[in-house]
């Protein structure tokens, strides 16, 4: 277990990243090749990426150069996932890696060698030229494996940030920390995180915590090993199962897609257009059009919040769903 200790100052400084961190996604995606855990959630990506890596003759690069530095193990070097990468793009992350001191790199590689076992060539990364060559390999891999799903990743990250914003609106920062997912438990002032290595405590000491949603992180969140680095927690965004199948009468009344949109909107405290699109399996413009029809029918209400539109049920929409559910289950409608 990882226990993250907050003070009042830390609660005020806790933030959620607006997008996935490209270098963390490189690391987490490489982990997906090293285990079958969660393979169902990445099945299409796994299949197409393996084909792409083979066609571009990158198999050796991944197996002999990248995986040895990004093992799915108790530790890999912190300098490979610098704080400045988050929210600033891939180039900013590369610049941060290149500006890391050779002394720090050697220290982290020595720890890596003791804990996991480092390849013999790893110490050469303390040199600028060798590090640049390694980061170019990371760039090539990113283009082949991560970049093709960037649009999906960012749509999911925006939806995740919207969900966490709604948690803050409904329950404050405590509500947000309490809604991070099944592998994290908030018992003020400690966030307990299921962690794959030994028990450890992270005291934030007024620095706050940067939460980074991740597309390729699976089940267990991950943090930096060095407690003196800016506190960061990369956590998995949940992969939803298929959208629920609405009751036949509701489908007959609204059509299958619009009935499903209504069900998805009812699943939580509303849903953004991108959340609806992802859950139903349609494009964002199509989701917006279906939501507009339901809104004009008085079943949904839509409110713009920054770059997103949040759709919520009206009392009429909720009543329609309750009636449909009651008929589907063979019992009369329950009134609130």
Question: Can you describe this structure in just a few lines?
Answer:
This protein has 336 residues and is an alpha/beta fold. It has helices at residues 8-13, 22-32, 43-55, 59-66, 90-98, 102-115, 128-146, 150-178, 248-254, 256-266, 273-280, 284-296, 315-328, and strands at residues 2-5, 15-16, 184-187, 190-193, 200-203, 210-214, 222-223, 232-236, 271-272, 300-305, 308-313. It folds into three domains: 21-149, no CATH class; 152-236, no CATH class; 248-328, Orthogonal Bundle (Arc Repressor Mutant, subunit A), CATH 1.10.10.10.
Number of domains: 3
What is the typical, i.e. mean, pLDDT? 87
Label the overall shape: globular
Strand order of the largest sheet: 3-4-1-5
- In percent terms, what proportion of residues is strand? 5-15%
Rg for CA atoms: 22 Å
Note the total helix count: 13
Could you estimate the helical fraction of the residues in percent? Answer: 40-55%
In terms of per-residue confidence, which ranges show pLDDT below 50 for 5 or more consecutive residues?
327-336
Largest sheet: 4 strands, mixed
Indicate the topology.
Blueprint: E1 2-5, H1 8-13, E2 15-16, H2 22-32, H3 43-55, H4 59-66, H5 90-98, H6 102-115, H7 128-146, H8 150-178, E3 184-187, E4 190-193, E5 200-203, E6 210-214, E7 222-223, E8 232-236, H9 248-254, H10 256-266, E9 271-272, H11 273-280, H12 284-296, E10 300-305, E11 308-313, H13 315-328
Parallel strand pairs: 1-5, 2-6, 6-8
Antiparallel strand pairs: 1-4, 3-4, 7-8, 9-11, 10-11
Helix pairs in contact: 2-7, 4-7, 5-7, 9-10, 10-12, 11-12
Description:
With 336 residues, this protein is of the alpha/beta class. It has three domains: 129 residues, no CATH class; 85 residues, no CATH class; 81 residues, Arc Repressor Mutant, subunit A. It has 13 helices and eleven strands. Helix 2 crosses helix 7, helix 5 packs antiparallel against helix 7 and helix 11 crosses helix 12. The radius of gyration is 22 Å and the shape is globular.
């Amino acid at each position: 277990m990882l226990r993250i200790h907050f003070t009042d100052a830390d609660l005020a400084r806790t933030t959620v990243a607006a997008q996935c961190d490209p270098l963390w996604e490189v690391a987490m995606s490489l982990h997906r090749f090293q285990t079958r855990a969660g393979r169902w959630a990445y099945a299409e990506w796994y299949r197409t990426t393996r084909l792409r890596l083979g066609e571009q003759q990158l198999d050796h690069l991944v197996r002999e150069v990248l995986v040895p530095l990004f093992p799915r193990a108790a530790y890999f070097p912190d300098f490979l996932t610098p704080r400045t990468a988050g929210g600033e793009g891939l180039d900013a992350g590369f610049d941060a890696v290149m500006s890391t001191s050779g002394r720090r790199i050697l220290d982290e590689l020595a720890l890596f060698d003791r804990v996991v076992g480092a390849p013999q060539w790893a110490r050469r990364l303390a040199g600028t030229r060798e590090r640049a060559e390694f980061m170019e390999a990371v760039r090539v891999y990113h283009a082949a494996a991560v970049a093709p799903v960037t649009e999906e990743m960012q749509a999911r990250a925006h939806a995740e940030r919207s969900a966490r914003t709604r948690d803050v609106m409904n329950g404050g920062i405590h509500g947000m920390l309490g809604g991070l997912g099944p592998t994290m438990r908030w018992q003020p002032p400690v966030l307990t995180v299921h962690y794959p290595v030994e028990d450890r405590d992270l005291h934030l000491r007024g620095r706050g915590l940067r939460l980074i949603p991740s597309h390729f992180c699976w089940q267990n969140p991950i943090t930096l090993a060095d407690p003196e680095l800016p506190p960061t927690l990369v956590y998995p965004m949940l992969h939803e199962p298929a959208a629920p199948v609405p009751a036949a009468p509701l489908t007959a009344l609204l059509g299958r897609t619009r009935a499903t949109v209504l069900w998805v909107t009812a699943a939580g405290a509303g849903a953004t257009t991108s959340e609806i699109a992802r859950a139903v399996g349609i494009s964002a413009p199509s989701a917006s059009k279906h939501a507009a029809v339901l809104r004009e029918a008085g079943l949904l209400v839509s409110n713009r919040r920054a770059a997103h539109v949040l759709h919520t049920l009206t009392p009429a929409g909720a009543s329609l769903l309750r009636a449909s559910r009651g008929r589907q289950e063979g019992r009369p409608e329950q009134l609130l």
